[in-house]
């Protein structure tokens, strides 16, 4: 699916992206900007699994459901912020990430932090989106 409101643009004069993200994401005028609270790896019953990669899977399910709740999808995401208390297994993470976003990726920031809102939370992902 192609989003006419969101464009991923090539960048000149800076290093190539070191991951699956775009350095520049452009949002057309008159779009509606959506900001969402960071999502964690809790399941629909609020249970947070111990396993980090299981939290990654649940987090992307939660993001998908959040976007769908306002009529948006992965193509509408313009920015992803990731906070993690553990080293990310990038091979596993990228598999889930690419399954979610496909070949065109939003802008991204990743930070390793000492703690998140609860001791059981190992990863939190926040997305920003634009749509009609």
Overview of the structural elements:
This protein is α+β, with helices and mostly antiparallel strands and 132 residues long. It has one domain (31-131): 60s Ribosomal Protein L30, Chain: A (2-Layer Sandwich), CATH 3.30.1330.40. Helices cover 22% and strands 28% of the residues. It is built from 2 helices and 7 strands. The chain has helices at residues 52-68, 90-101; strands at 6-9, 24-27, 32-35, 39-40, 77-84, 107-112, 123-131. Strands 3, 4, 5, 6 and 7 form a 5-stranded mixed beta sheet that branches. A two-stranded antiparallel ribbon has the order 1-2. Helix 1 (52-68) packs parallel to helix 2. The mean pLDDT is 90.
In N-to-C order, the SSE pattern is EEEEHEHEE
Total strands: the figure is: 7
Please indicate the count of domains: 1
Q: Report the average pLDDT across residues.
A: 90
CATH hierarchy class name: Alpha Beta
Query: What is the CATH architecture assignment?
Result: 2-Layer Sandwich
- Structural class from helices and strands? alpha+beta
Distance between the termini: 15 Å
Structural key phrases:
132 residues, alpha+beta, 60s Ribosomal Protein L30, Chain: A, 5-stranded mixed β-sheet, 22% helix, 28% strand, Endoribonuclease, L-PSP family, RutC-like_sf, YjgF/YER057c/UK114
In short, what is this structure?
InterPro entries: RutC-like_sf, YjgF/YER057c/UK114. With 132 residues, the chain is of the alpha+beta class.
